Amino acid sequence: MKRIAALLLLPLVMAAAEPRTPPVWSAPATTRVVTEDKTFEHNGIKLSGTLYLPDGARSAPAVVVFHGASSPLRSEALYDHLKRMLPSLGIAVFAYDRRGTGKSGGNARGNAYDVLADDGIAAAEMLAKDPRIDPKRIGFWGLSQGGWLSLLAASRYRPTAFAVSVSAPMVTPDVQMNFAVANILRIKGYPQADIDLAVDARTAVDEFERGRLDRATAQKRLDAAVDKPWFDLIYMDKTFSDPDKSGWAKEIRHDPLKSIGAITAPTLVIYGSADPWVPAAVSIERLRAFTRDHRNFETVVISGADHAMETTATPGQQIDPAFFPRQAPDSAEYYGRLAAWLQKNGFAR
Q1: Structural domains in the chain plus CATH codes
Q2: How far apart are CA 179 and CA 248, in angstroms?
Q3: What is the pLDDT of residue 259?
Q4: Position 260 pLDDT exceeds 70
Q5: Handedness of CA 292, 298, 301, 307 (dihedral sign)
Q6: Where would I find the beta strands (DSSP E) of the chain?
Q7: H helices then E strands: how many in the chain?
């Protein structure tokens, strides 16, 4: 969600912050990256981010980075490849701290997807006023939940030039989490009977939140799982809120397919073939059926890549929250596909 990749993806600001006399054998780099901290507002909330811009840029394309749910800060390793890779292709990158985190104001919890998408749109509108940025070539990139937000923002912001969605399920959040929980228990070595019990407990709560099941029955099915040794692995509490007070009740009503039909900009959707968190095969099937008449959509599956477009993490690491801050893409195919698509569509030099 690290080894050699971590060395390759060191933040640009670190390199820029260490002025020193270059060795006599050095040569000037083709691209020098300028970094600038910027603030912008959305509905009175001040948000803070950093712009990574090719030095001397004039009318450069730009991409606004949307966050994965567990990676809310601009400094996350997950985004370093964009800061290093895209400016060398002539594309500016703007990464910001999600509202309620880092140096951004607002609350971190309870934000609807449209609010988070509109935060990114506000960032795009801020960039459009910068004379070094081409206002007609600003797009969005996001991974996981950020992939949803990238598509949602592209559907809501008419000037969107392009959208890239990485590892974003094309199913509702409850379906995605049941898929993930089943795989978490498989990776941990639990038998199918335990997997079925865990998914049944989650499904019971989901059905209650949708108004399809009474509370007593849902609680009974949840209670059957509470004392199991794997309960802490399935992202559930021992009880649950009424639908009118539950943020999860709102989340599970989000079907990403409802927004993508409004997208007119070129859109790249990327999945990893070895992602335990997202039902990629089902997502691709739904996406292709829904976008059959939308030639602006392209879908690719990266061989051996996991949720973070990483090929070197073990299955145990992929599901370990303690490992999430270290996740960073290391798939050469992912890098190549992204760069080639941006170039094909006229955004990369």
Answers
A1: 31-171+255-344 (3.40.50.1820), 173-250 (no CATH)
A2: 17
A3: 80
A4: yes
A5: negative
A6: 33-42, 45-54, 60-66, 92-96, 133-143, 163-166, 267-272, 297-302
A7: 13, 8
CA 20, 26, 31, 32: dihedral to nearest 10 degrees?
10
Of residues 291 and 28, the one with the higher pLDDT is 28
183 forms bridges with which residues in the sheet?
A: none
Contact status, residue 142 vs residue 168, Cβ threshold 8 Å: yes
Q: In this predicted model, what pLDDT tens digit does every residue of 308-326 receive, in sequence order?
A: 999 999 999 999 999 999 9
Backbone angles phi, psi at 248, to 5 degrees: -65, -35
Give the residue from 84, 111, 109, 106 showing the smallest Cα distance to 95: 84
What is the token pair recorded at 320? 């370990």
Structure tokens at 283: 């997502």
Entry pTM = 0.90
> What distance in Å separates the CA atoms of residue 185 and residue 193, rounded to the nearest whole number?
11
Q: Phi/psi at 13 (nearest 5 deg)?
A: -65, -30
Structure tokens at 235: 């992202």
